[in-house]
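Encode chain A's predicted structure.
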Amino acid sequence: MLTARKGNRIIKIDDTERTTVLDAGYDIVELDEGNKAYKVVQQATGGKNYTAKEYNELKAERDALAAKVAELEEANTPDREAIKAALTEKGIDFAANAKTEKLIELLEEAK
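Encoded structure for chain A:
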């Protein structure tokens, strides 16, 4: 027997009903070690409704995280001109239209 929860409603189900219950918005839960609270073992796959406030909060958080990822990726992008200068300084020939990844590879091989 499995235990499923949706809001404050808790039901016992057979394993054969798992998919149907998950689609209906129930989470599969188990009692914690102290038998005081339920912890989610498997999230519901459908049937959940969210308020506009919850949606907007999650959207704002996602947008902030996406901006942070873009900022970190930009900060982590190697300076193409600095790589070219290092290769030239070491006397390594390279094509002017070579990709940055290739230039990095050439520079690492030269070390």
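The first strand starts at residue 2 and ends at 6.
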